[in-house]
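step=encode ok
step=design start
structure_in=
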């Protein structure tokens, strides 16, 4: 526990390239517009991680429905 307290009190040097950058709102909006243009319709879609077992179940259901 004492090691942890001592480690937290030490100030670690900042890595090169990790300086704080302050963006203006116009630059942020321009970056968002550029991102939206590059991704198109998919820009606002959420990304989900589905476990492999569920992917197999979903694929099996879709194949069964398409086969009807």
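sequence_out=
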């Amino acid at each position: 526990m004492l090691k942890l307290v001592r480690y937290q009190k030490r100030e670690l040097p900042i890595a090169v390239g990790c300086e704080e950058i302050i963006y203006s709102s116009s630059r942020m909006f321009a970056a968002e517009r550029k991102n939206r243009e590059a991704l198109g319709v998919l820009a606002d879609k959420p990304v989900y991680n589905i476990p492999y077992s569920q992917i197999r179940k979903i694929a099996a259901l879709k194949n069964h429905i398409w086969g009807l």
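step=design ok
step=annotate ok -> DSSP finds three helices and no strands in the chain.
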